[in-house]
């Protein structure tokens, strides 16, 4: 489909015409900062659980000398690294889910990679997709 990536109606039509959630989205659109962020905010939550969202042509190569798109996406790092208040650090390997009040983005982003002029954002179940989690030991009743 060809359309305006800053138009929510157009983005909604793109979603409606797909029979399944997208596994990958590559934003090679207008290269305008507001358009990149608007389409990311709309499309990323509608992707498959383990999708990858790519925004190419970020930064100085498109005139974004202040790195506004990159800096906006960097805020996702705090969500990836979310830590429930009061959880003892020694229990990190048993943290298999977050409290209900945890933000959607903290629960659904597992990684972000920044390269020169391109950013990859990976969806996933945080913290469940952490391969280093171990189940809590169970007590045996004798």
Helix content: 25-40%
Q: What does the overall shape look like? A: globular
Structural class: alpha+beta
What is the tally of helical segments? 5
Total number of beta strands:
4
Query: How confident overall, as mean pLDDT?
Result: 92
Which consecutive residue ranges, at least 5 long each, have pLDDT under 50? none
Strand order of the largest sheet: 1-2-4-3
Sum up the structure in keywords.
single chain; 142 residues; alpha+beta; four-stranded mixed beta sheet; 5 helices; 4 strands
Brief rundown of the structure:
With 142 residues, this protein is of the alpha+beta class. The chain has five helices and four strands.
Structure, explained:
A four-stranded mixed beta sheet has the order 1-2-4-3. The chain has 142 residues and is of the alpha+beta class. 26% of the residues lie in helices and 15% in strands. It has helices at 8-16, 33-43, 68-74, 76-80, 104-108; strands at residues 24-27, 52-56, 109-115, 118-123. Helix 2 links the parallel strand 1 (24-27) and strand 2. The protein has five helices and four strands. The mean pLDDT is 92.
Strand and helix map with partners:
Blueprint: H1 8-16, E1 24-27, H2 33-43, E2 52-56, H3 68-74, H4 76-80, H5 104-108, E3 109-115, E4 118-123
Parallel strand pairs: 1-2
Antiparallel strand pairs: 2-4, 3-4
């Amino acid at each position: 489909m060809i359309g305006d990536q800053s138009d929510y109606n157009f983005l909604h039509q793109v979603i409606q015409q797909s029979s399944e959630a997208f596994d990958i989205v590559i934003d090679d659109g207008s290269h305008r900062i507001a358009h990149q962020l608007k389409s990311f905010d709309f499309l990323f939550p509608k992707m498959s659980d383990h999708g990858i969202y790519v925004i190419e042509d970020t930064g100085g190569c498109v005139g974004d000398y202040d790195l506004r798109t990159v800096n906006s996406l960097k805020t996702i790092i705090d969500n990836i690294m979310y830590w429930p208040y009061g959880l003892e650090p020694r229990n990190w390997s048993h943290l298999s889910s977050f409290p209900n009040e945890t933000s959607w983005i903290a629960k659904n982003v597992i990684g972000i990679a920044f390269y020169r002029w391109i950013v990859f954002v990976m969806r996933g179940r945080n913290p469940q997709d952490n391969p280093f989690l171990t189940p809590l030991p169970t007590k045996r009743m004798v």
